Amino acid sequence: MTQADTSATETRELKRGLHTRHLQMIAIGGAIGTGLFLGSGGTISQAGPGGALLAYAAIGVMVLFVMQSLGELSTHLPVAGSFHTYGSKYISPSFGFAMGWNYWFNWAITLAAELVAAGVIMSFWLPDVPSWIWAAVFLALLTGLNFLSARAFGEGEFWFSAIKVTAVLVFLVLGVLMIAGILGGPSPGFSNWTTGEAPFAGGWMSIIAVFMIAGFSFQGTELVGVAAGESKDPRRDMPRAIRTVFWRIMLFYIGAIVVIGFLLPYTDPNLLASADKEDITASPFTLVFERAGIAVAASVMNAVILTAILSAGNSGLYASTRMLYAMAKEGTAPRLFARLNERGVPVMALVATAFIGLFGFLTEVMGDGAAYTWLINVSGLSGFIVWIGIAWCHFRFRRAYVHQGHDVENLPYRAPLFPIGPIIALVMLIVVVAGQNIEAVADGRVLEVASAYIGLPIFLLVWGLHRLITGPRSRFISLQDVDVDGLEITPKA
Q: What does the UniProt entry say about where the protein is found (predicted)?
């Protein structure tokens, strides 16, 4: 590549090709995955229908506050770097550095996990085909979608998410008909809410345990913040996405928990088995569809779950690629990754991220899988760390904005419950992170403690080392010195 070519690629900008419907489906799709289709059964088995409902509702409120914080930040400053940029501007460059690399690594490894899961899902239909073949096929598909353009990614994610949303809506409609006794035999009434220890089985400890699981289920909603950097009209589209997406996600999760709780007793062994993501037949969705008389329920849900996996991989590849690009633009990653092709796609960042995803997959299929397990463990808390960063950045931004004499009425979107919202979110998130495996901590099971919490000290280490190496220029930024300038995008016709 000549010097002129290099200069041209570095002066190109991301193409703002995402519309409102793309942003809404990106946020919805990010939260609807195997956590709902498979994990929801295990949570009911563990805490009863009432306990699961309470835990998911509480986490949903926390996510609402986080999303409102993200909405205010991303409408004011809609950039692909999102929380990395906000962390650098509103807290400290070192915090932003750690946030960016934490998020990139999280989704790069998540891509590997989705490739592994896709191989397992395909074995349901074609058990004799090696999983690495499916991994290669799906990685090529997702990389191809992301290589074309942001619009191609958005369209792919729109239809992936549409399939998932349709499956949930059909499930809810059939579930209501079955609860009413119109379909699938006589109505169960409230019998499954009063059997055994229901509705709250296992006491508060079980509810707290489900609280942690529910938190993982909602991860991915923050993807819309990264996508704001390529939205055609972020000041119009982001508030719409934030306002509508939360209620839709809550409808899906709370509705699904209610339906499952009415139709299946929490003592049903299949619900506990549904936590095993290799057993599609144990999915509560499969069980309900079968009771509704859908003979091919397992195959239908297998296809839906495969779609959910591809959706997560697609979104993860997009988000991590844009994060790596943004870090390169700001000088916290090699400049090579800031190069864009003529369609505005950061190709080198895409290739690097896809390679890391492939490497992670290979660590699982080769050897005993120990390296893969630890890679997954390192990324386990990454989503919660990002949410903590979002709430903290919002708190700092708003305080600095007011401190410097600006009128909050001039903000394109204002989180309605500031400062209570981000404060509640921060407290709840700290509880979630601290309680990841509190039993192992209490019992002194060192290996389990390390497995559950290793992501946190690594994040703090990266933050601290960057601060140590860069010195005073990465100090904690005072409210007076915080850069609160926004970015107004003029939509193109």
A: Membrane
Contacts by 370-374 with C-beta closer than 8 Å and gap 24+?
372/112, 372/116, 373/451, 374/451, 374/454
Residue 465 lies in a domain: yes
pTM beyond 0.85: the answer is yes
- Residue 409: which CATH number? 1.20.1740.10
Q: How many domains does the chain have?
A: 1
User: For residues 321 and 310, what is the distance between their CA atoms, to the nearest angstrom?
Assistant: 16
Angle CA 109–432–72, to nearest 5: 80
CB distance 280 to 301 below 8 Å:
yes
CA 123 to chain centre: 26
304, pLDDT greater than 80: yes
Q: pLDDT per residue over 2-12, tens digit each?
A: 444 444 445 56
- Specify the higher pLDDT residue, 477 or 450: 477
The amino acid at residue 61 is: V
